[in-house]
Amino acid sequence: MKKSLITTAILASLTLSACGGSSGGSDDTGPVTPTPTPNTAPTDIAIDNNTVDENAAGAVVGKLSATDAEGGAMTFTVDSDVFAIDGDELKLADGVAANYEQAMSMAVNVTVSDADGATFSKELTINVNDLLDTYKFNSKFVDGESSVSYTGQTARHALIAEFNHYISNTLKDELDDGTLTSRQDVMDVLNKFFRTTELQYDNFPITFTNAKEKFLTDISGSHKNLVGKLAGNDEKGQHKLWNDGDFEGWGAKGSTTPEGLVDIFFGQLADNAEAHINGTIRQAATGEDITDIYLNTNGTDLKQLIQKFLLVGITYSQATDDYLGNEVVDAAGNDIDGSKGLLTDNVSAVSGKSYSTLEHQFDEGFGYFGATVDYLEYSDNEISGKIDADAGDREEYNGKHDTDGDGEISLKSEFLFGQSVNAGKRDRATAGNTNPTDFTKQAMEAFLAGREIINANSGMALTDEQMAELLTHRDAAVDAWERAIVATVVHYINDTRADLDKLGTADFNYTDLAKHWSEMKGFALGIQFNPYSKISDADFTRLHELMQDAPVLDAANVEAYKADLLAARDIIQAAMSFDAENVANW
């Protein structure tokens, strides 16, 4: 038989066998269907990165993957409002940012579903990266201790706030109930706040807010007053001779001093109080009866003038002209190299302390800005005390926040003072503009970066390069601080002009005008105290010539005065390179 025939016979035999044998068989079951393999659920979830930077809203954490025997498409979900899924990426939900100081890690339950709907869930831990966003620096000299200290600055902030609270809420009551019965009584109580004695300080209660600290000594145990730190009253270190002819902005240049101006205000307040004691009803220049002791008849508000001038004459002056300075000789010719400011020692700890002199000097400058240690955590609305729940603002951050969770607000680190608040207010006002400002971020990030350089090198002298970098951050912080102040002056120029538009109508409000003008003038007086100001001496002089020492209230000259205020605003805008839209709407 040929090979081809043998092959054919074999194939035929195999075919018959596969069909069950001969045609005579009776058991025909048909084709056999294979049994399908059952689907199994995924067995694991992994992520290629398990860390996220704090403060980055909506940040992507990492790419998710799943272990599944069958493979195929996988769908991931989370049961959290903090996290979200974008394809196969785990991210923070829109508008949500991690905060290392509140939680060093976060847990999220992730579920994966395969194509058949089988699921597997796993809890993932996401670690939060701690960034430089909180004013907390550990000591390099004493293990376990902080190197930050500025309680003296906080005590003076509290004393200014307490003074303002007294004038606003208590002075008139004490005149009416017989606690104060003479002009001298009034002068004595005003000086209790300004020229506070050691005995007075040791028993000085805090009443302007409900805080953890109940007395000034709870903030700073050593004696503090305001007069000793007013511009001109330091023994050395300032860039002009404030008590020897250089102070200007009220009357002729050199006609008074910063301390002398405070006494002028005190004398006017005491005169108004005496008139009240005697039953005299004073009348404003525009004809209204005046009932508030702090309102003068010429359109000025002593409560505002005193508070604002103390804020700039003490906190702003001390910070920019002393603690954050790098000059080697002051205006009086004193050698201040190494004794004040940023040229002080960083090699050794201050005796009995956990910080160097340089660390402490920088801290004192920061303390006078008035920010909380976690200032960057606040929204502009929260800083301004204008919370909007619809915008995501938090009631517990309304100008203060219990950051350490002890159930109380500490004035030392959890309460916003001074220009840190005005910075937020001005930023808030530009939020919807073409070129919004961010004075709060600029100031705080510069303070943090500068302090980090000092802290990283404590125990050593800064190199020339490190000092140059430190001064760059100092300049940025002081620039933001000045911008917050002069933008506030612009704001009150705008308010004063709007008040004067209503003069002679039923809508005119004398109290509002006096308040707004006095806030404008009080803050504007402080521009001169910053040795790094962008506003020249000549512009400063012209600014106050235009503002004058009281608003113009006679109808014949009010339009010219409004034009002068606009010219003053133009000076500021040009010097600071402010955006025209922001200036018009502050």
Overview of the structural elements:
A hairpin with a 5-residue loop joins β7 and β8. This protein has 586 residues and is α+β, with helices and mostly antiparallel strands. It is built from 18 helices and ten strands. The N terminus is likely disordered. α2 runs parallel beside α10, α4 runs antiparallel to α8 and α10 packs antiparallel against α13. The strands form three sheets. The chain has a four-stranded antiparallel β-sheet, with no helix packed on it.
Number of helices: 18
The strand order across the widest sheet is 1-3-6-5
Mean pLDDT: 94
Secondary-structure element pattern, one letter each: HEEEEEEEEHHHHHHHEEHHHHHHHHHH
- What share of residues is helical? 40-55%
User: Low-confidence spans: pLDDT under 50, at least 5 residues?
Assistant: 1-26
Shape assignment: elongated
Structural class: alpha+beta
The counted number of beta strands is 10
Kindly report how far apart the N and C termini lie.
111 Å
Q: What's the alpha carbon Rg, rounded to whole Å?
A: 35 Å
How much of the polypeptide forms β-strand, as a percent range? 5-15%
Largest sheet: 4 strands, antiparallel
Labels describing this entry:
four-stranded antiparallel beta sheet, alpha+beta, 18 helices
Which helices and strands, and how do they pair?
Layout: H1 3-18, E1 44-47, E2 51-53, E3 60-67, E4 75-78, E5 83-86, E6 89-92, E7 105-113, E8 119-129, H2 151-169, H3 171-176, H4 183-194, H5 198-202, H6 216-219, H7 242-246, H8 258-277, E9 282-283, E10 289-290, H9 302-323, H10 357-369, H11 380-384, H12 418-430, H13 439-456, H14 464-501, H15 510-525, H16 537-547, H17 558-576, H18 580-585
Parallel strand pairs: 2-8
Antiparallel strand pairs: 1-3, 3-6, 4-7, 5-6, 7-8, 9-10
Helix pairs in contact: 2-9, 2-10, 4-8, 8-9, 9-10, 9-15, 10-13, 12-14, 13-14, 14-15, 14-17, 16-17
